[in-house]
Fold this protein.
Amino acid sequence: MSEHYFTAQPSSEAREHEVRYRARGVDYAVSAPDGVFSAQQLDRGTAVLLDKAPRTALPELTGDASAQPLCVDVGCGWGPITFALAHEHPHATVLGVDVNERALEAAWHNTVRLGLTQHVVISNARTAVEQLRTDGKHADLIWSNPPIRIGKTSLHKLLTTWLELLRPGTGEAYWVVQKNLGADSLVDWLNTQGFPSEKLGSSKGFRIIKSTR
C-alpha cells in the first residue's frame, strides 16, 4: 500500500460506502469513503470494544459549561466509537480526533446525519491535544481502537499523550488491541510508564485494556 488509513491526506479515490450496523442497542446508518479505516463495515476490533467496554459513570454536571464531562475517541475514523459515546453520555462533550482529513470530514458528515452536533466535536488530533493543554482540560473517558500499525514508538507516544490528558484519579481509558499484535506486552509497558493498566477480557482475538492515571 502506498498510503494507510493514518495518512493525513489520502490520495485514493473517495468512493462512498453506506455502512449499517448496531452497537450498544442503537442502529446506525452512516457513510464512509475509501481511504479511511474499515470504510465498508464496522471492523471487528471496534465491534469488540463497543460490545465489551463497561458503562462508565461520569462526573456530575455543575452548571459550569467549562466543567462539562469530556469523552474522547482517539482515532475516530468515520465515527463509530464517537457516536456510541455520544448516545451513552448525552450530557458530555464527545471529542472525536484523527489525523486523516478524509476521516474527519466523514465523521463530521455522519455526526450531522445522526443529529449529534450539539455535543460532538470532530477535530484534528494534534490541534485537539494543543487546545486541551492550553485550556487545562482533562478527559474523563477515552475509548479507542488505536492504530497499532503506526509502529511501536509512534503508538507509545500516542497513548501516553492522551493518557497524560486523562483526569487524574477518576478518568478511565479503554483500548482494544489484537492479542497477536502485542496486547499483553502493551499492558506491561503502560504499567511501567505509571499508567495502571489491566486486561478486562478477550473476544475474537482482541483484548480490552483499561488504563487510569
Notes: The two ends are 37 Å apart (CA to CA). The CA atoms of residues 182 and 211 lie 16 Å apart.
